[in-house]
Design goal:
Elements lengths: L1 H21 L2 H37 L1 H28 L4 H12 L3 H12 L4 H26 L3
Length: 154
């Protein structure tokens, strides 16, 4: 857990403090984050490709297991999004607060779950399979919720 949570958190915090101190906030946003974005996307896609490569046989060979994982995750993600969205609307939160809050509430943080499952149970474990299915389900579901939140902009 230290490797996947504490070290990245500390490294992010310290690098942020250092970069903001040595450069200005505008440079951080306009230069650093812009350059980092393609690297982070490539790293995430590489991780997903590797996970699916290692779990591909299980995904194809056990469709009922995949459904038993995927259906409740899908229902849970939509339910939490709508619950958070409508509470935010009831509280008269701005769209710029309500939409991200609903997304964060609905997210299952499978990136961290994948890392923890692999380190604790191994790459070919059932826990790893569940997190891979979670990623497989969460990405399109979250994209649909982003589209919905943008359509419901107020």
């Amino acid at each position: 857990m230290v490797i996947f949570v504490v070290i990245p958190l500390a490294a992010g915090y310290l690098s942020n403090k250092y970069l903001l101190k040595s450069k200005d906030e505008q440079w951080f946003k306009d230069e650093f984050l812009i350059r980092l974005k393609p690297i982070s996307i490539a790293a995430l896609l590489t991780t997903l490709v590797l996970l699916f490569a290692f779990q591909g046989d299980k995904i194809v060979d056990t469709p009922m297991d995949i459904l038993l994982i995927a259906v409740p995750l899908t229902i849970q993600t939509y339910f939490i999004f709508f619950l958070t969205w409508f509470i935010g609307r009831y509280l008269k939160l701005q769209h710029s607060i309500c939409a991200p809050s609903a997304m964060i509430g609905a997210s299952n943080f499978f990136e961290l779950a994948v890392a923890v499952a692999i380190s604790l149970f191994g790459l070919n474990s059932g826990a790893s399979l569940a997190t891979v299915v979670g990623v497989l389900i969460e990405v399109p579901v979250m994209l649909s919720l982003v589209a919905l939140a943008n359509r419901w902009r107020y």
